[in-house]
Amino acid sequence: MRRRIGILTAGGDCPGLNACIRGVARAAYELFDAEIVGIAGGYGGLIDGQYQEMSKRDFSGILTRGGTILGTSRTPYRDMRVIGTDNVDKVAAMKDNYKWLRLDCLVTLGGNGTHKTANLLSEEGLNVIGLPKTIDNDIWMTDVTFGFQTAVDIATEVIDRLHTTADSHGRVMVVELMGNKAGWLTLEAGIAGGADVVLLPEIPYDINKVIAAVEARGRNKKSFSIIAVAEGAMSQEEASMKKKERVNPNPYKTVAHRIAEQVQEKTGLECRAVVPGHIQRGGSPCPYDRVLSTRLGVRAAELIRDGKYGVTVGIHGDEVVDNPLKEVAGKTKFVPADHQLIRTARNIGIVFGD
Ligand code: F6P
């Protein structure tokens, strides 16, 4: 059985993409007569017809490599059906290039936006399989996404290192972690790193409660505090506003900077804001992500062998599962406010600012 597979990575990169690509490729070569076409730079490459015929050798030595050998880009889903000044009908172009490349199927590795476009292409009649990557861990119907655990490890190390310097100087360190609109990364790294305050998008905070927590530590002879704040966290006041009203006049002054300023002003303690940013997405995948990426990638190859499309692979408990693309696309997995991890954190005294 011969299958010609197009493969692309879209959206923000993360550790584990190459391990997953390798998993798809190695299993495909093992299971059937596979031809693999690497689409360059995400959906943009499928629109423009940028591709490379791949061979077995291209997938060698990439298990531990961060980033993506295919390159990636963000082509927002909301623009997919919009014809811009270049006059290109993006959906038609992707369908034409799929045919022109004589693909039997397309494997898309990406996050929420990627899944929406994958579903669109599936509804347009292409054979599509999705794979869930993101450090945000916010994809519906999978317990974990690949890239997440590596980001948790990195963010935890950031908090660990902040502890020693915060302790030496008696400072309040406000560390801003990624995660987009979901708080998974901050929640797990906050618990693992022993943060005193954890602020998540799902639980709008009251700055006075944050300040009270820092002051309470002072009364307990703890001269320093660590506040882990998710980049999407909002105060209760901001959360009650309409999205349009929530404008940040200075994009360089992110939530961590605003909180550090407020805490310093009210407590008189020296505060520092730390934003590790894309460091959380860089470098080699951790062993857990290497295994997860491989498992999910191999499943994609099995699905191609079985001719089962219109699905995205995920993990539930210890089972690799196939979920319908149409049920996954367009939904975001937020941290439920009563999640067991939140209860655990509260029970060891972590303050969420609510
Ligand atoms: O989705 C992954 C992510 O790293 C988010 O956590 C973050 O909000 C966003 O991407 C950053 O995007 P960019 O790489 O385009 O700056």
Sheet-strand content, in percent, reads 15-25%
Number of helices: 12
Question: Biggest sheet, in brief?
Answer: 7 strands, mixed
Shape, principal axes of CA atoms: elongated
Q: Kindly provide the radius of gyration, computed on alpha-carbon positions and rounded to a whole number of angstroms.
A: 22 Å
What's the end-to-end separation, in Å? 58 Å
SS-based class: alpha/beta
Give the topology string: H per helix, E per strand: EHEHEHEHEHEHEHEHHEHEEHH
Round the mean pLDDT to the nearest integer and report it. 97
Give me the oligomer status.
single chain
Which strand order do you get reading across the main beta sheet? 3-2-1-4-5-10-11
**Ligands in the structure?**
6-O-phosphono-beta-D-fructofuranose
Helix content: 25-40%
Low-confidence stretches: none
Topology, number of strands: 11
Description:
With 354 residues, this protein is α/β, with parallel strands linked by helices. It contains twelve helices and eleven strands. The chain has helices at 17-31, 43-48, 90-100, 112-123, 148-169, 184-193, 207-219, 236-239, 255-267, 287-306, 325-328, 340-347; strands at 2-9, 33-39, 51-54, 105-110, 128-132, 172-177, 197-199, 225-230, 271-274, 311-316, 319-324. The strands form two sheets. Strands 3-2-1-4-5-10-11 form a seven-stranded mixed β-sheet, with helices on both faces. Strands 7-8-6-9 form a four-stranded parallel β-sheet. β4 (105-110), α4 and β5 (128-132) form a beta-alpha-beta unit. The protein is elongated and about 70 Å long. The termini are far apart. Bound molecules: 6-O-phosphono-beta-D-fructofuranose. 6-O-phosphono-beta-D-fructofuranose (F6P) binds at residues 12, 111, 134-136, 178-180, 231, 281.
